[in-house]
Fold:
Amino acid sequence: TVVTPGDALEVLGDKDLASTLIGQMDEWLNVRTPEGFAGFVAAWLVRAGEKPASQPAPAPAGLTVFPTADINVRAQPSVNSPRVGGAFHNEALTVIEADLDAARDKIGKTDQWIHVQLKDRNRGWAAAWFLGATPG
Structure:
């Protein structure tokens, strides 16, 4: 799966050991994503944070896009990247990019990709040339 900056990752295993590895090159941490996926993340790409007392419901992202056909959603922004899910024609997808204006500018454009969240909370990259701003 793909995580984005700001995603809170839960450390699996020895948390004291993990805290010594954070920020260290060539070290890896066993983590769980907010969506429940478990795997490893490069320790040099994460930073420690405080665990929130409770997880509030995510705020609406503010931008929804709609596939103009049935599409694949990929792990990375490439047609050669593994498929992580799919969306049907006119199924609402939530854009999860930090810059929503930049994402809005990519809608409908060839060779552009938009980072989206599916209704099952899976995240991945959708080909912008198969997306519209309104159902249609």
Remarks:
- The beta strands are 10-11, 28-32, 38-42, 64-67, 71-74, 83-87, 93-95, 113-117, 123-127, 131-132.
